[in-house]
# Entry
Amino acid sequence: MTATEATRDAALRRLGAFQPRMGRDYAELRNFDLGAGAHDHVSTLSPYLRRRLLTERETIAAALEAHGPEAAGAFIAEVAWRSYFKGWLEQRPQVWDAYRDGLARDLAKLERDAALRARVAQACEGRTGIAGFDEWAAELNETGYLHNHARMWFASIWIFTLKLPWRLGADFFLRQLLDGDPASNTCSWRWVAGLHTRGKHYEAQAANIARFTRGRVQLPEDCLAQATAPLDAPLPERQALRPVSAPRDGVPTLLLLTEEECQLSDFAPERLDLRGVLGLKASALRSPLPVAQAVCRFEAAALEDSAGRLGAEPAWDAAGDPVGLVRHAQAVGAAQIATGYIPTGPLHDWITAASPALEAAGIALTEWRRDWDALVWPHATAGFFKLRKQLPHILSQAGLT
Ligand SMILES: Cc1cc2nc3c(=O)[nH]c(=O)nc-3n(C[C@H](O)[C@H](O)[C@H](O)COP(=O)(O)OP(=O)(O)OC[C@H]3O[C@@H](n4cnc5c(N)ncnc54)[C@H](O)[C@@H]3O)c2cc1C
# Structure
């Protein structure tokens, strides 16, 4: 994994280095997992995109510039998967709530059930004896990255061969992945399980693994569960995208920096009546269990870099008691907090918990939502292919074609 320097400069360097491969090379070779240190045919841009050190729009623009819409089509579609999952979860936040609550139940069961605890530990530490699976666990623990195909195989083996609770696997990924994202991760695990596209799940096959690891991982066919059935649960009803209140000029403001948006400079916050800047470290909210140090370090460096580009010297805090946010705002005399849009996930839960105290103190929480999100999310109502059909139109509306 090369994306370990959490700066916008590093993101742009990686974007430039991968740009020549965003066309036919990506279309033909992206599904090959060549192993740790050899992920040459995928971009490894995900930790940057997740925090918007780099935006989807500028990543797609780079692909179009180098290859045009046809040859870059496969790469653009993959970037669009990210926006799709984000938009889908925004419209079904109950799925996140159910994941979070279900995970708490799974973890309580783990406390009580020593045999299950031992099996989960074996899987997370790469001690199952299943070739490939154990190496992917080790790669994830060591680098904070896994190739997309490896994530699919890993999740499938976790759920269907090892028969472990899917939420514990999703939690393991969220704690270890530098790009760990509540929408992409939860929805992808649900997709593998058969809960996202109901009735359709992903079953890892030894032949497919051998082919797409170029023979590196050889498994006896009967080592993996065969003819498995998808998990099943009804989908909650889709909700309207939540309304967004944008920051108002002339109001004393606390600028809130979070890893959800590391390019606040795009919104020209300097035009506001800024009284203070707060950098909030929130990676620990990803899970009730300890989150990998590398993830926390990446977030901290990304926030430092983001503050530096704003010319700000923020106060720093970790997302502990949500009421702490009110105290920060009051200390600088702010009547509004301005921040990048906080999508469904742990930070949104945290800020929602702060809302009553903010309201009582007369402090408005305001957000900037990117035009890209406003354009793409309304299309994320059902399956990805519905959105994919709209991509030419979306790219044209975004001024990219
Ligand atoms: C079980 C499972 C869990 C996952 N968890 C996460 C997660 O927590 N965070 C995350 O960003 N992605 C997640 N993904 C999606 C995907 O695996 C990663 O985005 C991708 O592997 C990142 O590597 P890359 O930057 O080299 O991707 P590239 O192939 O170079 O793609 C470019 C960008 O497009 C986006 N992208 C590509 N494929 C997908 C996809 N299938 N879904 C969503 N976005 C995609 C990413 O932002 C990525 O950086 C998960 C997939 C699975 C199967």
The two ends are 32 Å apart (CA to CA). The domain at 252-369 is CATH 3.40.50.620 (Rossmann fold). The pocket of flavin-adenine dinucleotide is lined by residues 30, 42-46, 49-50, 78-79, 81-82, 85, 148, 151-152, 155, 173, 177, 179-181, 184-185, 188-189, 192 (CB under 6 Å).
